[in-house]
Design goal:
The longest helix is centred in the C-terminal third of the chain and has 12 residues, at 75-86. This protein has a single domain (4-117), classed as Spore Coat Polysaccharide Biosynthesis Protein SpsA, Chain A, CATH 3.90.550. The strands form 2 sheets. It has a 4-stranded parallel beta sheet, sandwiched between helices. It has helices at residues 29-39, 52-60, 75-86, 106-117; strands spanning 4-9, 23-24, 27-28, 44-49, 64-67, 94-96. The chain is of the alpha/beta class. The protein is built from 4 helices and 6 strands; from the N terminus they run E-E-E-H-E-H-E-H-E-H. One of its GO terms (biological process) is lipopolysaccharide biosynthetic process. GO terms for molecular function: 3-deoxy-manno-octulosonate cytidylyltransferase activity. Keywords: Lipopolysaccharide biosynthesis, Nucleotidyltransferase, Transferase. One of its GO terms (cellular component) is cytosol.
């Protein structure tokens, strides 16, 4: 079963500005999240961000970026913009993995995709 992971990554967090780029063991947090998503077996992984520094970090790690507007109130709104821009079909399984979850087990991402596919 194929599925897509979209990772919203907002740079201008009010509690921790620049959160996606916080260094964890020598890598930006967003790169750790990207790596977990890769381990899940997703067909496609897109990081949705409104900040060039986040985009550069993701691209340097070989990831795909979709630049989004800066006015989103939530990661879900950012994800919806990516879905619209990419034109995914109604039956595409899309898993929303937050950009501040560097320790999320890949098996959980895959399980969510399987649960969504059964709906």
């Amino acid at each position: 079963m194929s599925f897509v992971v979209i990772i919203p990554a907002r740079f201008s967090s009010t509690r921790l500005p620049g959160k996606p780029l916080v260094d964890i063991n020598g890598k930006p947090m967003i790169v750790h999240v990207l790596e977990r998503a890769r381990e899940s077996g997703a067909e496609r992984i897109i990081v949705a961000t409104d900040h060039e520094d986040v985009a550069r970090a993701v691209e340097a790690a070989g990831g795909e970026v979709c630049m989004t507007r800066a006015d989103h109130q939530s990661g879900t709104e950012r994800l919806a913009e990516v879905v619209e821009k990419c034109g995914f079909s109604d039956d595409t399984v899309i898993v929303n993995v937050q950009g501040d979850e560097p320790m999320i087990p890949a098996v959980i991402i895959r399980q969510v995709s399987e649960n969504l596919a059964q709906r």
